[in-house]
Design brief:
The protein is mainly α and 291 residues long. It has one domain. The chain has eleven helices and four strands. Bound molecules: zinc ion (ZN).
Length: 291
Protein backbone atom coordinates (compact mmCIF):
# COMPACT_ATOMS: atom_id res chain seq x y z
CA UNK A 1 0.00 0.00 0.00
CA UNK A 2 1.41 3.42 -0.95
CA UNK A 3 1.66 6.31 1.53
CA UNK A 4 -1.17 8.01 -0.36
CA UNK A 5 -3.40 4.94 -0.01
CA UNK A 6 -2.60 4.66 3.71
CA UNK A 7 -3.49 8.34 4.21
CA UNK A 8 -6.71 7.88 2.24
CA UNK A 9 -7.66 4.82 4.31
CA UNK A 10 -7.04 6.86 7.48
CA UNK A 11 -9.25 9.71 6.25
CA UNK A 12 -12.00 7.26 5.29
CA UNK A 13 -11.81 5.66 8.74
CA UNK A 14 -12.12 9.08 10.36
CA UNK A 15 -15.07 9.94 8.12
CA UNK A 16 -16.73 6.66 9.06
CA UNK A 17 -16.17 7.44 12.75
CA UNK A 18 -17.67 10.91 12.33
CA UNK A 19 -20.67 9.51 10.50
CA UNK A 20 -21.15 6.73 13.08
CA UNK A 21 -21.04 9.27 15.92
CA UNK A 22 -23.35 11.57 13.98
CA UNK A 23 -25.91 8.82 13.49
CA UNK A 24 -26.34 8.60 17.23
CA UNK A 25 -26.97 12.35 17.56
CA UNK A 26 -28.98 13.32 14.47
CA UNK A 27 -31.38 11.73 12.04
CA UNK A 28 -29.81 10.67 8.74
CA UNK A 29 -29.67 13.08 5.83
CA UNK A 30 -32.60 12.61 3.50
CA UNK A 31 -31.72 11.02 0.14
CA UNK A 32 -31.47 13.29 -2.93
CA UNK A 33 -34.97 14.03 -4.22
CA UNK A 34 -36.01 12.75 -7.62
CA UNK A 35 -34.99 15.04 -10.45
CA UNK A 36 -37.73 14.72 -13.07
CA UNK A 37 -40.13 17.61 -13.64
CA UNK A 38 -43.86 16.76 -13.76
CA UNK A 39 -45.99 17.67 -16.76
CA UNK A 40 -47.34 21.20 -16.46
CA UNK A 41 -50.90 19.89 -16.89
CA UNK A 42 -50.63 17.67 -13.82
CA UNK A 43 -49.56 20.31 -11.30
CA UNK A 44 -51.21 23.29 -9.72
CA UNK A 45 -49.40 25.97 -11.71
CA UNK A 46 -50.01 29.69 -11.60
CA UNK A 47 -49.75 31.84 -14.71
CA UNK A 48 -48.52 35.40 -14.60
CA UNK A 49 -48.39 37.98 -17.35
CA UNK A 50 -44.85 39.36 -17.31
CA UNK A 51 -44.63 43.15 -17.24
CA UNK A 52 -48.15 43.59 -18.66
CA UNK A 53 -50.58 46.48 -18.22
CA UNK A 54 -53.37 44.05 -17.36
CA UNK A 55 -53.03 41.03 -15.05
CA UNK A 56 -53.35 37.55 -16.55
CA UNK A 57 -56.94 36.74 -17.59
CA UNK A 58 -57.63 33.62 -15.52
CA UNK A 59 -60.60 32.60 -17.71
CA UNK A 60 -58.07 31.40 -20.31
CA UNK A 61 -55.97 29.41 -17.81
CA UNK A 62 -56.44 25.94 -19.33
CA UNK A 63 -55.85 27.07 -22.89
CA UNK A 64 -52.66 28.92 -21.91
CA UNK A 65 -51.39 25.90 -19.94
CA UNK A 66 -51.91 23.76 -23.06
CA UNK A 67 -49.90 26.27 -25.08
CA UNK A 68 -47.12 26.47 -22.50
CA UNK A 69 -46.64 22.70 -22.13
CA UNK A 70 -44.37 22.71 -25.17
CA UNK A 71 -42.71 26.08 -24.41
CA UNK A 72 -39.06 25.20 -23.85
CA UNK A 73 -38.24 28.41 -21.98
CA UNK A 74 -40.97 27.70 -19.43
CA UNK A 75 -39.57 24.15 -19.40
CA UNK A 76 -36.14 25.47 -18.36
CA UNK A 77 -37.60 27.82 -15.74
CA UNK A 78 -39.60 24.98 -14.14
CA UNK A 79 -36.70 22.55 -14.37
CA UNK A 80 -34.58 24.99 -12.38
CA UNK A 81 -37.38 25.45 -9.85
CA UNK A 82 -37.31 21.70 -9.16
CA UNK A 83 -33.60 20.95 -9.53
CA UNK A 84 -32.56 23.44 -6.85
CA UNK A 85 -33.75 20.82 -4.35
CA UNK A 86 -31.51 18.17 -5.97
CA UNK A 87 -28.41 20.06 -7.12
CA UNK A 88 -28.26 22.41 -4.13
CA UNK A 89 -29.90 20.22 -1.52
CA UNK A 90 -27.36 21.03 1.22
CA UNK A 91 -26.84 24.75 0.55
CA UNK A 92 -28.66 27.06 2.95
CA UNK A 93 -28.39 29.95 0.50
CA UNK A 94 -30.52 28.23 -2.15
CA UNK A 95 -33.49 27.78 0.24
CA UNK A 96 -33.27 30.58 2.82
CA UNK A 97 -32.42 27.91 5.42
CA UNK A 98 -30.40 28.28 8.61
CA UNK A 99 -30.88 32.08 8.92
CA UNK A 100 -28.34 32.53 6.10
CA UNK A 101 -30.17 35.62 4.87
CA UNK A 102 -27.12 37.46 3.56
CA UNK A 103 -25.96 34.40 1.65
CA UNK A 104 -29.42 33.80 0.18
CA UNK A 105 -29.74 37.43 -0.94
CA UNK A 106 -26.24 37.33 -2.45
CA UNK A 107 -27.07 34.08 -4.25
CA UNK A 108 -30.22 35.55 -5.84
CA UNK A 109 -28.16 38.57 -6.93
CA UNK A 110 -25.55 36.29 -8.48
CA UNK A 111 -28.23 34.31 -10.34
CA UNK A 112 -29.73 37.50 -11.77
CA UNK A 113 -26.22 38.53 -12.86
CA UNK A 114 -26.05 35.18 -14.64
CA UNK A 115 -29.35 35.96 -16.37
CA UNK A 116 -27.86 39.29 -17.46
CA UNK A 117 -24.76 37.58 -18.87
CA UNK A 118 -26.82 35.07 -20.84
CA UNK A 119 -29.13 37.74 -22.27
CA UNK A 120 -26.15 39.86 -23.30
CA UNK A 121 -24.59 36.81 -24.96
CA UNK A 122 -27.89 36.18 -26.76
CA UNK A 123 -28.02 39.78 -27.98
CA UNK A 124 -24.45 39.54 -29.29
CA UNK A 125 -25.30 36.29 -31.09
CA UNK A 126 -28.38 37.92 -32.57
CA UNK A 127 -26.22 40.65 -34.11
CA UNK A 128 -24.07 37.92 -35.69
CA UNK A 129 -27.21 36.15 -36.97
CA UNK A 130 -26.43 32.98 -35.00
CA UNK A 131 -29.93 31.88 -34.02
CA UNK A 132 -28.81 28.61 -32.44
CA UNK A 133 -26.51 30.50 -30.08
CA UNK A 134 -29.30 32.98 -29.27
CA UNK A 135 -31.58 30.10 -28.34
CA UNK A 136 -28.96 28.32 -26.21
CA UNK A 137 -28.22 31.51 -24.28
CA UNK A 138 -31.90 32.31 -23.71
CA UNK A 139 -32.55 28.81 -22.37
CA UNK A 140 -29.73 29.38 -19.86
CA UNK A 141 -31.22 32.76 -18.95
CA UNK A 142 -34.59 31.16 -18.14
CA UNK A 143 -32.89 28.43 -16.13
CA UNK A 144 -31.03 30.96 -13.97
CA UNK A 145 -34.25 32.97 -13.52
CA UNK A 146 -35.98 29.78 -12.34
CA UNK A 147 -33.21 29.17 -9.81
CA UNK A 148 -33.69 32.64 -8.37
CA UNK A 149 -37.48 32.15 -8.35
CA UNK A 150 -37.00 29.10 -6.11
CA UNK A 151 -35.09 31.17 -3.55
CA UNK A 152 -37.61 34.01 -3.64
CA UNK A 153 -40.48 31.60 -2.90
CA UNK A 154 -38.53 29.75 -0.20
CA UNK A 155 -38.15 32.99 1.77
CA UNK A 156 -41.86 32.78 2.67
CA UNK A 157 -41.93 29.01 3.19
CA UNK A 158 -38.80 28.67 5.31
CA UNK A 159 -38.65 31.85 7.40
CA UNK A 160 -40.95 33.14 10.12
CA UNK A 161 -41.80 36.22 8.04
CA UNK A 162 -45.47 35.22 7.88
CA UNK A 163 -45.57 34.66 11.66
CA UNK A 164 -43.92 38.05 12.29
CA UNK A 165 -46.29 39.89 9.95
CA UNK A 166 -49.77 38.50 10.59
CA UNK A 167 -50.52 40.12 13.96
CA UNK A 168 -50.40 43.68 12.58
CA UNK A 169 -52.37 42.80 9.42
CA UNK A 170 -56.10 43.50 9.29
CA UNK A 171 -56.32 41.71 5.95
CA UNK A 172 -53.80 39.48 4.20
CA UNK A 173 -53.04 42.08 1.54
CA UNK A 174 -51.71 44.41 4.27
CA UNK A 175 -48.61 42.23 4.56
CA UNK A 176 -45.65 43.77 2.75
CA UNK A 177 -44.35 41.65 -0.13
CA UNK A 178 -40.61 41.09 0.26
CA UNK A 179 -38.70 41.04 -3.03
CA UNK A 180 -35.20 39.94 -1.93
CA UNK A 181 -33.50 41.16 -5.14
CA UNK A 182 -34.58 44.78 -4.51
CA UNK A 183 -32.62 47.14 -2.26
CA UNK A 184 -35.61 48.13 -0.08
CA UNK A 185 -36.48 44.49 0.63
CA UNK A 186 -32.87 43.56 1.36
CA UNK A 187 -32.76 46.39 3.91
CA UNK A 188 -36.06 45.21 5.38
CA UNK A 189 -34.77 41.63 5.75
CA UNK A 190 -31.61 42.87 7.48
CA UNK A 191 -33.65 45.10 9.78
CA UNK A 192 -35.99 42.25 10.75
CA UNK A 193 -33.13 39.79 11.23
CA UNK A 194 -31.37 42.24 13.52
CA UNK A 195 -34.27 42.55 15.98
CA UNK A 196 -33.97 41.13 19.51
CA UNK A 197 -34.25 37.34 19.95
CA UNK A 198 -37.84 36.19 19.87
CA UNK A 199 -38.88 39.11 17.64
CA UNK A 200 -36.28 38.61 14.93
CA UNK A 201 -36.64 37.16 11.47
CA UNK A 202 -35.22 33.63 11.47
CA UNK A 203 -35.44 30.63 9.21
CA UNK A 204 -35.53 26.98 10.18
CA UNK A 205 -32.49 25.06 11.35
CA UNK A 206 -31.44 22.30 8.95
CA UNK A 207 -28.66 20.26 10.58
CA UNK A 208 -27.07 19.06 7.34
CA UNK A 209 -27.37 22.39 5.49
CA UNK A 210 -24.54 24.94 5.46
CA UNK A 211 -23.76 27.60 6.42
CA UNK A 212 -25.67 27.69 9.72
CA UNK A 213 -26.26 31.19 11.08
CA UNK A 214 -29.26 30.81 13.41
CA UNK A 215 -29.12 31.76 17.08
CA UNK A 216 -29.13 28.79 19.45
CA UNK A 217 -32.65 27.50 20.09
CA UNK A 218 -34.10 28.50 16.69
CA UNK A 219 -36.92 26.22 15.56
CA UNK A 220 -36.07 23.38 13.21
CA UNK A 221 -37.00 23.55 9.55
CA UNK A 222 -39.67 20.88 10.14
CA UNK A 223 -41.33 23.04 12.82
CA UNK A 224 -41.11 26.33 10.91
CA UNK A 225 -41.63 25.39 7.26
CA UNK A 226 -44.81 26.32 5.41
CA UNK A 227 -44.14 24.43 2.17
CA UNK A 228 -47.27 22.37 2.64
CA UNK A 229 -50.72 22.81 4.17
CA UNK A 230 -50.03 19.98 6.62
CA UNK A 231 -46.80 21.15 8.32
CA UNK A 232 -47.00 22.13 12.04
CA UNK A 233 -46.61 25.83 11.20
CA UNK A 234 -48.35 25.78 7.82
CA UNK A 235 -51.60 24.38 9.16
CA UNK A 236 -52.06 27.09 11.83
CA UNK A 237 -55.22 29.05 10.99
CA UNK A 238 -55.56 32.78 11.54
CA UNK A 239 -59.01 33.72 12.78
CA UNK A 240 -58.58 37.44 12.11
CA UNK A 241 -57.56 36.80 8.49
CA UNK A 242 -60.67 34.92 7.35
CA UNK A 243 -59.37 31.76 9.00
CA UNK A 244 -56.76 31.38 6.31
CA UNK A 245 -53.75 29.24 7.19
CA UNK A 246 -50.12 30.35 7.37
CA UNK A 247 -49.48 28.03 4.44
CA UNK A 248 -52.08 29.88 2.35
CA UNK A 249 -50.50 33.21 3.28
CA UNK A 250 -47.02 31.92 2.40
CA UNK A 251 -48.35 30.80 -0.99
CA UNK A 252 -50.08 34.17 -1.56
CA UNK A 253 -46.94 36.15 -0.73
CA UNK A 254 -44.63 33.82 -2.67
CA UNK A 255 -46.91 34.13 -5.67
CA UNK A 256 -46.96 37.93 -5.50
CA UNK A 257 -43.18 38.08 -5.12
CA UNK A 258 -42.83 35.67 -8.07
CA UNK A 259 -45.00 37.93 -10.21
CA UNK A 260 -42.80 40.90 -9.26
CA UNK A 261 -39.65 38.97 -10.15
CA UNK A 262 -41.01 38.05 -13.60
CA UNK A 263 -42.18 41.66 -14.10
CA UNK A 264 -38.74 43.03 -13.20
CA UNK A 265 -36.98 40.44 -15.36
CA UNK A 266 -39.12 41.14 -18.43
CA UNK A 267 -38.74 44.90 -17.88
CA UNK A 268 -34.97 44.70 -17.53
CA UNK A 269 -34.48 42.13 -20.32
CA UNK A 270 -37.15 42.70 -22.99
CA UNK A 271 -35.57 39.90 -25.03
CA UNK A 272 -36.83 37.41 -22.41
CA UNK A 273 -40.42 38.51 -22.98
CA UNK A 274 -39.96 38.67 -26.76
CA UNK A 275 -38.47 35.16 -26.82
CA UNK A 276 -40.92 33.48 -24.44
CA UNK A 277 -44.13 35.46 -24.86
CA UNK A 278 -45.84 37.32 -22.04
CA UNK A 279 -47.30 34.33 -20.14
CA UNK A 280 -45.18 32.47 -17.60
CA UNK A 281 -46.40 29.37 -15.73
CA UNK A 282 -44.78 27.82 -12.68
CA UNK A 283 -45.48 26.15 -9.36
CA UNK A 284 -45.40 28.01 -6.06
CA UNK A 285 -43.58 26.44 -3.09
CA UNK A 286 -41.98 23.36 -4.62
CA UNK A 287 -40.11 21.39 -1.97
CA UNK A 288 -38.84 17.94 -2.59
CA UNK A 289 -36.14 17.66 0.00
CA UNK A 290 -38.24 15.47 2.25
CA UNK A 291 -37.58 17.43 5.42
ZN1 LIG B 1 -35.91 25.13 -1.60
Amino acid sequence: MSIGQILLAGICALAWCASAVGQGASPPKPPPPRAEVPDLRTVSAVIVCGNCDQPFDTSTHEKVIEDLVSNKYIGELRKALYLQDSYHQFESKAHFDNCAFGDAIGYIDSLLSEVDGHVQAAQASKVRGDSAAVDAAMLKAFFALGQSLHGVQDFYAHSNYVELSVDQAKKSTDIEVIAPWRKASKDRINELAGRPPGKALVSGFVFWGFPQACPKGTLSHADLAKDKATTPSGKVKLAHLDNRSRYQLAVQLAREASQELINDAFRRWPLMKATNGESVAFEVLVDRRGL
